[in-house]
């Protein structure tokens, strides 16, 4: 069993936009191996799929719902759906299928929360994320937390669209299809997101500018 | 025909977000390039948006779920 799992984890395919254009069908060897497992041993197929793709599914959901326990519960639901539909999965490309299922599960959850009157928005104000001396002695975790805080402050729909584009690597057309909105709306929301984030993260942008300027000047200083 | 200032900027913003996913058509690419060459502030604005795009991508969530513990949870397929 361990050997089977290792085989899958070391050969996990990369998911590119090209794959999404072709739907869920794939002839990659590792996907074919999963299909073979599904035909021969459903329990082992499920365990292999789960152990290899649970973190991916969970993180995809977490980026949208922003709650670890909820993300884990919803990820479990994704795998339960896979199990219940296993008879229909003989030709699918599992990574793309899981990715889409995870996104839909998360978006459905957010919609249900909205209908119940529970708003996930963390804030509408777009003041800069306050950073004490950014870059100097700041850990990667702190920087990541500040940047996530800025993303979390985006208006809900804007944040969803930004996350689907930036982290889930969906094209604007795919986002429009997923959310049943126009591509123009997606582009407008991306403009809004990036403008707000540009303000929120201005301290980090300044550090980047200084770093780039410093790197450009360094060879000149060496010549002096 | 003169394009209003706000409309022009709205169009440029759209071109910028399209450039981030490499979906600009050749004519849009030329239009964006022309706008960038017009003024140093345009280039600075474009660079800041691109850097915003880059740094947000470099700092994805660090949440790592406990796969083993989740596999042990009671469910229909075990």
Could you give a quick summary of the protein structure above?
The complex is a heterodimer of chains A (224) and B (78). Chain A is an all-alpha fold.
Describe this structure in words.
The complex is a heterodimer of chains A (224) and B (78). Chain A has helices spanning 2-10, 17-21, 29-40, 42-65, 68-84, 94-115, 140-152, 156-166, 172-179, 183-200, 202-223. Chain A is mainly α. In chain A, helix 3 crosses helix 4, helix 8 (156-166) packs across helix 10 (183-200) and helix 9 (172-179) crosses helix 10. Chain B is mainly alpha-helical and 78 residues long. Chain B has a domain at 5-57. Chain B has helices at residues 5-20, 26-38, 40-58, 67-72. The chains are: A mainly alpha (224), B mainly alpha (78). The A-B interface holds A 42-43, 46-47, 50-51, 54-55, 58-59, 62-63, 68, 71-72, 75-76, 79-80, 83-84, 140-141, 143-144, 147-148, 150-151, 162, 165-167, 171-172, 187-188, 190-191, 194-195, 197-198, 201, 204-205, 208-209 and B 10, 13-14, 16-18, 20-21, 23, 48-49, 51-53, 55-57, 59-65, 67, 70-71, 73, 75-78.
Main beta sheet of chain B: none
Total strands of chain B: the figure is 0
Mean of all residue-level pLDDT scores of chain B? 87
Assigned CATH architecture of the largest domain in chain A: Orthogonal Bundle
Share in β-strands of chain B: under 5%
Largest contact between protein chains?
A-B, 48 and 32 residues
Instruction: Please compute the radius of gyration of chain B using only Cα atoms.
Output: 21 Å
Shape, principal axes of CA atoms of chain A: globular
Please give the domain count of chain A: 2
Please state the structural category of chain A.
Answer: mainly alpha
Mean pLDDT of chain A: 80
What series of H and E elements makes up the topology of chain A?
HHHHHHHHHHH
Compute the number of helices of chain B: 4
Q: What oligomeric state do the depicted chains represent?
A: heterodimer
Summarize the main sheet of chain A: none
Low-confidence parts of chain A: 1-22
End-to-end distance of chain B, in Å?
68 Å
Number-wise, the strands of chain A total 0
State Rg of chain A: 21 Å
Low-confidence stretches of chain B: none
């Amino acid at each position: 069993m361990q050997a089977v799992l290792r085989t899958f984890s070391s050969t996990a395919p990369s998911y590119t936009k090209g794959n999404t254009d072709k739907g869920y069908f794939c002839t990659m060897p590792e996907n074919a191996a999963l299909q073979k497992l599904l035909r021969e041993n459903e329990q082992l197929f499920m365990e292999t799929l789960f152990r290899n793709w649970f973190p991916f599914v969970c993180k995809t959901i977490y980026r949208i719902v922003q709650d670890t326990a909820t993300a884990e519960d919803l990820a479990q639901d994704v795998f339960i759906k896979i199990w219940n539909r296993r008879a229909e999965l003989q030709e699918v490309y599992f990574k793309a299928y899981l990715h889409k299922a995870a996104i839909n599960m998360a978006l459905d959850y957010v919609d249900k929360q909205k209908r119940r009157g529970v708003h996930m928005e963390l804030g509408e104000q777009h003041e800069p994320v306050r950073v004490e001396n950014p870059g100097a002695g700041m850990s990667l975790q702190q920087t990541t937390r500040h940047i996530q805080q800025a993303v979390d402050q985006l208006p809900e729909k804007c944040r969803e669209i930004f996350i689907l584009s930036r982290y889930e690597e969906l094209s604007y057309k795919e986002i429009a299809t997923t959310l049943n909105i126009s591509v123009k709306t997606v582009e407008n929301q991306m403009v809004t997101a990036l403008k707000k984030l540009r303000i929120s993260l201005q301290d980090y942008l300044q550090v980047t500018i200084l770093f780039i300027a410093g790197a450009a000047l360094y060879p000149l200083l060496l010549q002096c | 025909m003169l394009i209003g200032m706000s409309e022009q900027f709205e169009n440029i913003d759209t071109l910028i977000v399209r450039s981030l996913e490499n979906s600009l058509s050749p004519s849009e690419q030329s239009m964006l390039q022309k706008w960038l060459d017009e003024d140093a502030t345009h280039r600075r604005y474009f660079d800041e948006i691109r850097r915003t795009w880059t740094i947000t991508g470099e700092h994805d969530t660090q949440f790592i779920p406990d796969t083993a513990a989740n596999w042990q949870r009671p469910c229909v397929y075990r």
